[in-house]
Amino acid sequence: MIKKILFLTSLLSTAQKINSAISWKPSLYQEASAGNYTTVKKMLENKADIHQSDRYSGDTPLMAACACKIIDLQGENSDINKTVQVLLDYKSDPTLKTPSESTVLHLALTYGRHHTACKALLDAKADVSYEDFFGQTPLMAAVDDQACKYLQNHVFSPYKHTIPL
Questions:
Q1: d(Cα 25, Cα 89) in Å, to the nearest integer?
Q2: pTM, to two decimals
């Protein structure tokens, strides 16, 4: 009985630490925003709250990962792409919006330029045609960058029938 109590106590303290926040940013949010795939995966395996958002901005860990400005040098195998995928695997919602009405797809295209993550978001049913506060769709947000050509040829091509012209 004592072993069982000690085990439950350690589980509770682990979950408490995983879901704790330094200032207003939850631990999972901080690790996702840095693209720390291994840590994010381990935290999710240990029951981190995937929906716990930044107390100031309201952004979720998935939003933080998509907006991460780490250069995507390793393509599909980069930590940021794997971070986005593991967050989606654990049922992070790709349809949530920021206060400026940007979707995670907007963030991935505008800030992160993570092409493989964009494909994962599209596969998870991220909205391609949603207009943010400024009236921009995700594709419009990418237009001012070289990412647009890549996206048209490699990411959006299977979804052409769903993209409004």
A1: 22
A2: 0.72
